[in-house]
Amino acid sequence: MESHKNNFKYYGHSHGRGKKPNKKILIFLGFLFVMGIIIFTILYSNGSITGKVVSSINANNSIEFSSSLTIPDLTFKGEYPEIKILSKAKTTIYIGRKSFLLDELKENRIILKDFSGKIELDEDGILFDGKVSDVNLNNLPIQEKNGRRIKIYVDSKIPYNLIEFKEDLFLKEIDYVSSGVLFIGDENKDKITLDEDSLFISNYLGELRINEDTLFLEGFAEDIKISGDMRKISISS
């Protein structure tokens, strides 16, 4: 199959000194002003102009899909309302001026609220460095008394059992060799199985969850390309 293309339904007169401005010129300038507002609204109504992690793609002109895939190497920066991490690893987390040692004999629950900073993750673990409004560490809330944001980081990757972003996040691209399944369309109409195929996803906006050794995505993208030994598939919005 050389190509796979789908359309998905988704979610003047001069005037002398001292004379009044020409009426036609005023009407023309008013028309330009109105058109400027309309164009600005069209261009930015679905874009990010606040610096928050919001849509930079138009969901009505994109590909809706879900997937369960092998885990890629990802590095990204942004602001995320809540990140949940479950881990059974022995590691140290630095929060403010204190350090907390996690016990490897039990499942540790880490919840980062209003995190802003850098995140790196792969199949071996997650690394983060940024600030939060507060942290919940094994049901122990940690926050500054004065309401200031807290510095939080780890200096080595934490092996995890679960990573979950509570709200949609935006990734400019996902590009790696993957195995798993893609379901295309709002009702999972088309199923594509990957077996060590090259996968490229551009401008992804949606959910991201990693459970054990599987990456789950559910959202929208502008383009999806798959290539392997015997096929090339290109899906565009």
N- and C-termini, Cα separation: 18 Å
Radius of gyration: 24 Å
For the sheet with most strands, the description reads: 15 strands, antiparallel
Average pLDDT works out at 81
Low-pLDDT runs: 1-17, 38-55
How much helix is in the residues? under 10%
Tally of domains: 1
How does the overall form come out from the CA principal axes?
Answer: flat
Overall structural class, as computed from helix and strand content, comes to mainly beta
Report the portion of residues in β strands: over 45%
Number of helices: 1
Plain-language structure description:
There is one protein chain. The chain is mostly beta strands and 237 residues long. The chain has one domain (1-11, 52-237). Helix content is 9%, strand content 52%. It has a 15-stranded antiparallel sheet that branches. It starts with 22 loop residues before the first helix and ends with a strand.
List the helices and strands and how they pair.
Layout: H1 23-44, E1 63-69, E2 74-87, E3 92-95, E4 98-101, E5 108-122, E6 125-132, E7 134-137, E8 140-142, E9 150-153, E10 162-165, E11 169-184, E12 190-211, E13 214-221, E14 223-227, E15 232-236
Antiparallel strand pairs: 1-11, 1-13, 2-5, 2-10, 3-4, 3-9, 5-6, 5-7, 6-9, 7-8, 10-12, 11-12, 12-13, 12-14, 14-15
Give structural attributes.
15 strands; 1 helix; 52% strand; 15-stranded antiparallel beta sheet; 237 residues; disordered N terminus; mainly beta
Structure described in brief:
With 237 residues, this protein is mainly beta.
